[in-house]
Write a structure and sequence with these properties.
The chain is built from 15 helices and 13 strands. Helix 3 packs across helix 5. It has a seven-stranded parallel β-sheet, with helices on both faces. Strands 10-9-8-11-12-13 form a six-stranded parallel β-sheet, sandwiched between helices. By secondary structure, the protein is of the alpha/beta class. The chain binds ligand GMT. The site of ligand GMT has 20 residues, from helix 1 and helix 4. It holds the Pfam family Glyco_transf_4. Keywords: Transferase. This is Glycosyl transferase.
């Protein structure tokens, strides 16, 4: 049995989801898990006897202009490493978690192994920033093991940060108890969607890199030939301008903004096609969530997306910003029932074969023990 500390962003987001689900699955295998985060990770809804939560508390001492979160995290990490005698501290996202873990290891008495998992924007966005570049490189070099969620992210990290050391690729996974092909009777009707209307869905945090406008433009073309609706799920910086765009294009009857939602698998149960047309994407966890629910996807030819979608089998890959092509493929798939069924089945089988949680958790355990 290993004692494993996990640090991650606890709010909605792919890296937090992976960290939390990994902790849950490791605990089911008998390992003791210690989350070190600012609030309870949002997927840790139930009581788990072998999971402990250590809250990073902010100090509001009057001379601090801003409460120093990173320092509080370092001291909490060092405290938990020693008190709980951790074997492993697995941190998700380089800034600030990896760098904090390195400093906590220096402070602690107990010998602990630091595993850093890179998730994407910590490298592809922050890695470009000169302020952070040196710090991220340092954290990667000083970690005992570094993993990346796709081959593309591993290669990009090495190239951008000029790093020679090994970075293991461990793909993402989904919790199959939550994401599986299910029915959601009545849900389509609740959204006022006709039984014969197809549903396209996009789920993201509405950051610029997600290019939600391309989703809307693609939908505008698709709906000329297919009776359909678009569900936009999530919230973020681009939300307001996307609402505006939908109004300008007079699509407000057909595009439904659902905001942040917890029951993504229910929404996938009524969806026919997932769109993720990002300009940067290290993996695209929502594609895998869709696949596990038998929903085919169209994604862009960026980052790790082509490692997830098998072009022409589980969905299609299009060049970034090519809404014509995305619409053409969407129409092809949504108007050919036989092809859609094959893609839907293929998506499910691919998720099971390549990204099954059991396989991915084994890969992490192997790294904890022998990496
Ligand atoms: O996509 C985001 O903006 C959120 C971000 C995060 O850190 O939660 O997602 C990143 O990590 C996910 C889990 O590994 C990946 O599935 C996403 O592709 C990745 N996002 C980007 O690279 C933009």
């Amino acid at each position: 049995m290993l004692k494993i500390g996990i640090a991650c962003y606890p709010t909605v987001g792919g890296s937090g989801i992976i960290a939390t689900e990994l902790g849950k699955l490791l605990s089911e295998r008998g390992h003791e898990i210690h989350f070190i985060t600012s609030s309870i990770p949002f997927r840790l809804e139930k009581l788990h006897p072998k999971i402990y939560y250590h809250q990073v508390e902010l100090s509001h001492y009057p001379v601090f202009q801003y409460p120093p979160y990173d320092l509080a995290l370092i001291s909490k990490m060092a405290e938990v490493i020693d008190r709980e005698q951790l074997d492993i501290l697995h941190v998700h996202y380089a800034i600030p978690h990896a760098i904090c873990a390195i400093l906590a290891r220096e402070m602690a008495q107990n010998k602990v192994k630091i595993i850093t998992t890179l998730h994407g924007t910590d490298i592809t966005v922050l890695g470009i920033d000169q302020h952070f570049k040196k710090m991220i490189t340092y954290a990667i070099e000083k970690s005992d093991v570094v993993t990346a969620v796709s081959r593309s992210l591993m290669e990009q990290t090495k190239q951008m940060l000029k790093i020679d050391r090994d970075i293991a690729v461990i793909h993402n996974f989904v919790n199959e108890k939550e994401y599986f092909p299910k029915t959601a009777p009545g849900l389509k009707r609740d959204f006022n969607i006709q039984p014969d209307e197809k549903i396209l869905i996009h789920i993201s945090n509405f950051r610029k890199v997600k290019r939600v406008q391309d989703i809307i433009y693609t939908f505008q073309k698709v709906k000329e030939q297919v009776k359909c609706k678009l569900l936009l799920v999530g919230d973020g910086p681009e939300y307001t301008s996307m609402v505006q765009l939908v109004h300008e294009l007079e699509l407000q009857e057909e595009v439904l903004f659902l905001g942040k939602q917890n029951n993504i698998s229910d929404l996938l149960a009524i969806s026919d096609l997932l769109l993720l047309l990002s300009e940067k994407e290290s993996f695209g966890l929502v594609i895998l969530e869709a696949m596990a629910c038998k929903v085919p996807s169209i994604g862009t030819n960026v980052g790790g997306i082509p490692e997830v979608i098998a072009h022409g089998q589980t969905g299609y890959i299009v060049p970034a910003q090519d809404v014509e092509k995305a619409a053409e493929y969407a129409i092809q798939l949504l108007t050919d029932e036989k092809r859609w069924r094959t893609f839907s089945e293929n998506a499910y089988l691919r998720a099971k074969k390549h990204f099954h949680s059991e396989r991915i958790v084994n890969e992490y355990i192997e790294i904890y023990k022998n990496g």
